[in-house]
Design a protein that fits this description.
Blueprint: H1 2-32, H2 38-61, H3 64-94, H4 99-104, H5 106-120, H6 141-144, H7 148-163, H8 165-189, H9 199-210, H10 223-239, H11 242-258, E1 260-261, E2 273-274
Antiparallel strand pairs: 1-2
Length: about 300
């Protein structure tokens, strides 16, 4: 009996030792990844403050006068923030059951890239300038203040951009062909003294002119070349609205999809019905499979 009791006590101690790390991981997860407790909100706000201060340090350190005067202070602050964010990144991985999935996610990649430049600076001097990527981590502010509606709108815009990618790529290829043709013509009619020393150089002028930027560092001097420039400017104004129209059309379609249900019609199998629709707009079938059609037993007036 004493042996059995001793075994039970040993098992209890073993269970407690195994449960302690799990409870610690669960507590870390609630603080680091959640935002519905005072501790979690305090952690997120403190983290965002540290991110903003660290980005400000990088920006100020790029000013020559401030770097000459406070360079040592900026260096110590930067390494302090890097060590802090490194520990935070490791804790995020430790408290997850599948840390690899988080490491591959958007926020996981941003968290990793936010600490990578400082460690790389040990091998590649000057890498600290890439630390401004930490400003992307402020996107966690949306989670802290429950602004997920903005995230949903951003996802809708991303889907619209993804759906219009082929049209936009086709538009860019068309623009590239126009620039190449006009650049070749302007290269033939303009003297090298005007700056058109090669077709790639003329293509640079074509992009600047077609986008109506007009730096003025290269300009045609012959009448025919000036005519081509005017034609390209007018063409630039006429085609600038094309990608905007394509993207706007996809946004409208996404808004229409959000107001529609993904439920398929049991009659014809089509989707895209309004959320409050009871009958299919394509075949007239009753959509709710769990309830009977209240008008199913009514006689068809067209039959009589």
């Amino acid at each position: 009996m004493m042996v059995a009791g001793g075994n039970r006590r040993t098992d209890n101690v073993s269970n407690i030792l195994h449960a302690a790390p799990d409870k610690l991981r669960q507590r870390l997860f609630q603080i680091i990844f959640e935002s519905d407790t005072p501790a979690a909100k305090g952690f997120d706000i403190a983290l965002i403050a540290a991110i903003l201060v660290s980005v400000a340090v990088v920006l100020l350190d790029s000013v020559p006068t401030l770097h000459a005067r406070y360079g040592a202070l900026f260096w110590h602050l930067e390494w302090g923030f890097t060590l802090l964010f490194t520990v935070e990144y490791l804790l995020r991985l430790i408290c997850l059951q599948r840390p690899v999935l988080y490491a591959r996610s958007f926020y996981g990649v941003v968290d990793f890239l936010s600490i990578l430049p400082t460690w790389l600076s040990l091998l590649l001097p000057g890498g600290q300038s890439l630390l401004v990527i930490r400003v992307l981590r402020v996107l966690r502010l949306l989670r802290v203040f429950r602004l997920w509606a903005y995230v949903g709108e951003g996802e809708m815009l991303s889907r619209a951009l993804l759906r219009s990618r082929r049209k936009i790529v086709l538009f860019l290829v068309s623009v590239l062909m126009i620039v190449t043709v006009f650049a070749s013509v302007i290269y033939l009619v303009e003297p090298p003294e005007a700056g058109f020393t090669s077709i790639p150089r003329a293509m640079y002028w074509g992009v600047v002119t077609l986008t109506t930027v007009g730096y003025g560092d290269i300009a045609p001097v012959t009448p025919f070349g000036q005519f081509i420039s005017a034609l390209m400017m007018i063409l630039g104004y006429s085609i600038i609205a094309v990608p905007t129209g394509v993207f706007s059309a996809e946004v409208i379609r996404e808004l229409q999809r959000e107001g529609q249900s993904s439920e398929a019609c049991p009659g014809c199998g089509r989707e895209g019905h309004d959320r409050d629709a009871r009958y299919c707009k394509h075949c007239g079938a009753w959509l709710d499979e769990e309830k009977p059609d209240p008008h199913a037993d009514e006689p068809d007036s067209s039959a009589s």
